[in-house]
Structures are given as structure tokens and as C-alpha cells.
Amino acid sequence: VQLQASGGGLVQAGGSLSLSCAASGRTFSSYAMAWFRQAPGKERDFVAAIRWSGGGTSYADFAKGRFTISRDTAKNTVYLQVNSLKPEDTAVYYCAAERGGYGSSRRDRYDYWGQGTLVTVSS
């Protein structure tokens, strides 16, 4: 399984970004996919998850309202749309895949990780 995250960059506060995670190597119909983020010197935190089958979603409290996770099953790609970016959103954003398909918020539930994409928000 390979997960390739992309779409990060330098954005001004108030701007938007769309991150992508291209998945390959197997069929993901029973999986859940998620985005986590890790700010400098901080732990890796859950952002949002989506069940590949059915598309059910869950979000961390801080992500509700500004972050939207979605997937394109035909392209095997998961997206994270982030609006109204804040400097505190600066982090490396990682996508992850969970075989169990639950969409857990726990890092240790995820079996595969992408390499991360850096989002920097300037004030």
C-alpha cells in the first residue's frame, strides 16, 4: 500500500488549501482513510476520517466547520479542503489508511501512512 500526499504550501491567513492523498496497492473498499497533522514540537493529531465505503465522516473538534474530508473512489484519492486558514494550522499533514474501516481518531489504529505534506500559514 502506498499513500502519496500532496497539495501543501505557503498560504496567507484566511486562505484555503486542498490536500490530496492518492492511494494505491490494493482495494480500499473496506478501509477508512484519515488526515492527521503534526505541528513543530507537537504530537501528531487527528484531523478527520472518512469511511471508504459509504463515505461516513468524523472530525476533530477543532476541524469542524473549516475542514472537509472527501474521497473519489474512482481515483482512489482522499481530499482535505481547509478554509479560513489560521497560523496555528501550520503543520505537516499526513494521510493514513485503516484496515478496520472504522475511521478512528487514534494514531495507533492506522496501518499505513503517507509521507506528509507541509502547510505553512503566514499571518
- Number of helical elements: 0
Shape: globular
**What structural class should be given to the helix and strand makeup?**
mainly beta
Distance between the termini: 37 Å
Helical percentage: under 10%
Query: Low-confidence segments, ≥5 residues, pLDDT <50?
Result: none
Indicate the mean pLDDT. 96
| Computed Rg | 13 Å
Strand runs, count: 11
Q: What order do the SSEs take from the amino end to the carboxyl end, as H and E?
A: EEEEEEEEEEE
The fraction of residues assigned to DSSP E strands is: over 45%
Q: How would a crystallographer describe the biggest sheet?
A: 7 strands, mixed
Model description:
The protein is mainly beta and 123 residues long. 0% of the residues lie in helices and 51% in strands. The strands form two sheets. Strands 2, 4, 5, 6, 9, 10 and 11 form a seven-stranded mixed beta sheet that branches. Strands 1-3-8-7 form a four-stranded antiparallel beta sheet, with no helix packed on it. It is globular.
Topology:
Blueprint: E1 2-6, E2 9-12, E3 17-24, E4 32-38, E5 44-51, E6 57-59, E7 67-72, E8 77-82, E9 91-98, E10 112-113, E11 117-122
Parallel strand pairs: 2-11
Antiparallel strand pairs: 1-3, 3-8, 4-5, 4-9, 5-6, 7-8, 9-10, 9-11
Concise account of the structure shown:
The chain is built from no helices and eleven strands. It has strands at residues 2-6, 9-12, 17-24, 32-38, 44-51, 57-59, 67-72, 77-82, 91-98, 112-113, 117-122.
